[in-house]
Design a protein that fits this description.
The protein is mainly alpha-helical. It folds into two domains: about 100 residues; about 150 residues, no CATH class. It has 15 helices and no strands. The protein is globular.
Length: about 290
Amino acid sequence: MCDAFAERDVAVLAVVAVAAAAAAAQIVRPAYAALLLLSWASLTRGGFSELGYYGARPLLTVAALIVAGEPAAWLHGAAVGVATALSPRCDRTALSVAADLTALPFAWFMLAEPRREYRSWCAVEALLVLGLLLAENDELADKASHLTWWNLFALGLYDAAVVAERGRALAPAVLVLCGVVVAGVLYMSAVQCDMLQNSYDDVGAGVYFAGNFAMHYYPAARLVFAPWPTNFAPALVRAVAFVTIYSLLYDVVEVYGCAEPPAAAVPLLMTGVAAAIAMAAAVAHAFAKHLSD
């Protein structure tokens, strides 16, 4: 059974507010805001409170129906209503899973445009990243202290932006963040920081190398050829500023178990690395654009 209230209910309300505001401000097409709401309507069950199951989930679906007004969306709304009424638990049942699957026709309809395959992959990837972030809620505070998790969160945001046809705006900043993460992992491997060694000892060589690639190198590979907006300088500046703020908020040397550099020097070093990567990315982008013109 569910608790009366769960912290993740706040996240549900936040997603509703962001989607509604984005649609109202015409930042994203209303139909994509509806797709976001339908996705959350399917996700916000297991582990959520009774408020989330009986309140937020139907409200999410109703909001999506109002915004989208497509037959496939109404099919999903009816299925969610029946599943909510007949499944008086927060656990997944065959009926509730079937209700979730009725969101697929609507999702396919929304993505049935040019670059559908790529945007579909981005939608799946965004949901996978979301699942990784929400898994093991007792470790959320620990995840927040690792730049790698912020980088994965940024990748998920980029994927969602691609689905909403706004990926260009985020690509430069996310690429810089990916570059900082890769540089950090290479440095930690060179000086043998405790976190990497402990992970290797805990999971073994195969899982370690696969996870290391997926967590640290794959996001950079995804972003390196992503299209950029015409005015990309503000995004690069924001990425460098984010790295600086992160290095000031957390004791990076302690978080990753490194013997060096001195903790006081970390903010300056990380900011310098981020700035260097941002400048290199800008030069490379300009050169590639010159070759293509």
